[in-house]
Amino acid sequence: MADQPGGGGRPRVQTVNPATGEPGKAYDAHTIEDARAAAAEAHEAFLSWRRTSFAERAAVIRKAGAILRERKDEFARLMTEEMGKTLSDGQAEVEKCAFHCDWFAEHAEGYLAREPADLGHGEAFVTFNPLGVVLAVMPWNFPFWQVMRFAVPALMAGNGGLLKHASNVPGSALAIEEVLLQAGLPKGLFRTLLLSSRDVEALIEDEHVGAVTLTGSVPAGRSVATAAGGVLKKCVLELGGADPYVVLEDVDVAAAARICATARMVNGGQSCIAGKRFIVVRPVLEAFERAVVEAMRGYPMGDPTRPETKLGPMQSVQARDDIHRQVTESVQRGARLLLGGEIPDRPGAWYPATVLADVRPGQPAHDEEVFGPVAAIIAAEDEADAIRIANASEFGLGSGVLTADLDRGRRITAKELEAGMSFVNENVRSDPRMPFGGVKHSGFGRECGQYGIREFVNIKTVHVQTLAKARGSSVE
Ligand code: NAP
What we know:
The protein is an alpha/beta fold. It has helices at residues 32-49, 54-70, 72-83, 87-111, 145-156, 170-182, 200-205, 218-230, 253-265, 285-296, 317-332, 364-367, 383-391, 406-416, 449-453; strands at residues 3-5, 11-16, 23-28, 115-117, 123-130, 133-137, 160-164, 190-192, 211-215, 234-238, 244-247, 277-281, 336-339, 354-357, 374-380, 395-396, 400-402, 423-424, 439-440, 443-444, 457-464. NADP nicotinamide-adenine-dinucleotide phosphate (NAP) binds next to helix 8.
């Protein structure tokens, strides 16, 4: 992942297979000058693309979906090699991207249809026009899905795109550009830039970049939002999460524990939206601890290329070491280690499924986002106390409630939990058809669904009146 000078003097981006620690392919990086030239080219292409019909754009995006399906196994393998995702998770991810292409090819026109307004005189409507070239700074954890989640609606709305992907997934980043080109997207409209994060601020300031979106950590979000604010450009942020699950006394404990383990172990625990804090009321606490340990034992570490493997390596040794520090510090400060918590003696970035009980404020497992396969169990006195603990977090991305009483579940998810998404008796996840995003330090703005596609458009008011009936107003 380190930048190294290549033969031609250009920096190189070196990949490392997290399962083995072995170096993989290396790629020539782009410079800020390359990026500025790409931004100008994307803007030029945008000026024509914005005038294409929805039907023309949909044909390209549908084709991109078809190519993704055809090349699913190849792309899944690429993700496994670059960031350690299991092959089966990678295949599912590419399928999801293809469904997303189909969904927006079908629905973008409806989502962005002109909206008439009856003001009692003349004609008025709202129309949705593209903003220009959108710069996307993306994370490695879902190398295809995170990018397509932004790119497909943005392109269907008539925008162009520039991708600065995480530096450990350059092959995936280039493959996405290739798929879009192969599908018939005009040359230059969407470009992948293997750019250092140090150059992002300068690119945001470039005159040909119209808006920016970042999916990643809070510090990266802060730095991108500051740069975008400095030049007054629209910005969407999808940041971290410490999703709480409230476990109530009326649950079937074994079923609840299975849902919690599934929610925690998405992508080896390396998902922004994933059950991370399990807040359990006392009457079912002990039984839940035992059941979660049992459920988490169902995720042994294994070769990510084997179809039966449910937990592969972490994305890097550095990331694995960060997770281990959070676990050991939590134990030093009073957490009880019920499962896992030891780094295995083998090459690669391995970390086992881990369960911590007695998690409290002051421990990293309570106060920070743990981006790995670590379930943190927190005791609560009752429902109100559990909701209070759930909301006492800097984050507000996903959340959930486990209860046999669906009315209780509806009330708590709809009204009580401070989060962008809330689930009753299900594991947290994104869906192309539903808005996705967070509150508090989990970010602002939305992706997916009608709300997502309307982020990178000019929501424009139009009034039309005949000259004879024109009348002014002195109020702004
Ligand atoms: P990260 O370090 O913030 O990296 C994400 C992207 O931002 C990468 O492309 C990275 O480039 C770039 N970047 C890092 N620092 C930057 C800066 N100062 N200025 C501009 N760009 C910068 O995130 P990560 O730790 O790899 O990813 C995990 C985090 O992402 C977690 O917090 C997770 O919850 C969050 N996430 C959120 C969502 C969501 O939808 N809400 C989805 C997935 C992940 P380099 O790789 O070159 O450093």
